[in-house]
Amino acid sequence: DAGVTQSPTHLIKTRGQQVTLRCSPKSGHDTVSWYQQALGQGPQFIFQYYEEEERQRGNFPDRFSGHQFPNYSSELNVNALLLGDSALYLCASRAWGTPELGVGYTFGSGTRLTVV
Amino acid sequence: AQKITQTQPGMFVQEKEAVTLDCTYDTSDPSYGLFWYKQPSSGEMIFLIYQGSYDQQNATEGRYSLNFQKARKSANLVISASQLGDSAMYFCAMREEGYGGATNKLIFGTGTLLAVQP
Prior knowledge:
The complex is a heterodimer.
Chain A: E1 5-7, E2 10-13, E3 19-24, E4 31-37, E5 44-50, E6 53-57, E7 64-68, E8 74-78, E9 87-94, E10 106-107, E11 111-115
Parallel strand pairs in A: 2-11
Antiparallel strand pairs in A: 1-3, 3-8, 4-5, 4-9, 5-6, 7-8, 9-10, 9-11
Chain B: E1 3-5, E2 10-14, E3 19-21, E4 24-26, E5 32-39, E6 46-52, E7 60-61, E8 64-69, E9 74-79, E10 88-96, E11 107-108, E12 112-117
Parallel strand pairs in B: 2-12
Antiparallel strand pairs in B: 1-4, 3-9, 5-6, 5-10, 7-8, 8-9, 10-11, 10-12
């Protein structure tokens, strides 16, 4: 049973460019969340998608946008990249129909983005 | 404001000994869940243990146990019989129920780097 798959694993971009990161959720999961983890920090919530809509958003500028496809996979887009956007971007999935607090999320291994 | 605090940037422990990783939290929501995740160098967040705010007993999962002191707002992770493979970053996280059911946002601390020495 495949877990959460993220691509690419590593990426180097130049300031001002745009980037797209991809995530395939665990089988049976329909909700995808994205987190940004800067070096030496804990992950910060970016946003969460369910039924192809953004359902919740963290404190991130509009340069960060996303999309969810009918097969539940998701993309994270970042425009006008800044040096400060360099981080590990983690995708996490869960099943929306299990709202219990204790239901854990399944995380992918992340995409490490370096902006130069 | 919702916040998770981990005050130990790094910890050393001898193989086969027990270690406690500290976590305090702040929330005004009476219903919340506390999680511990392990993050090896590969980057993946691995779920270890969960404690609900209304749970009467401390959670245990194999060698992991959570020392939950609600009045003190602390949720320390105890790893018994440490193994070399336990060397990793450990994150404490919280999820609040909020209104209309459980929200999906996890709030993480800054983590503790655990090094297990042979």
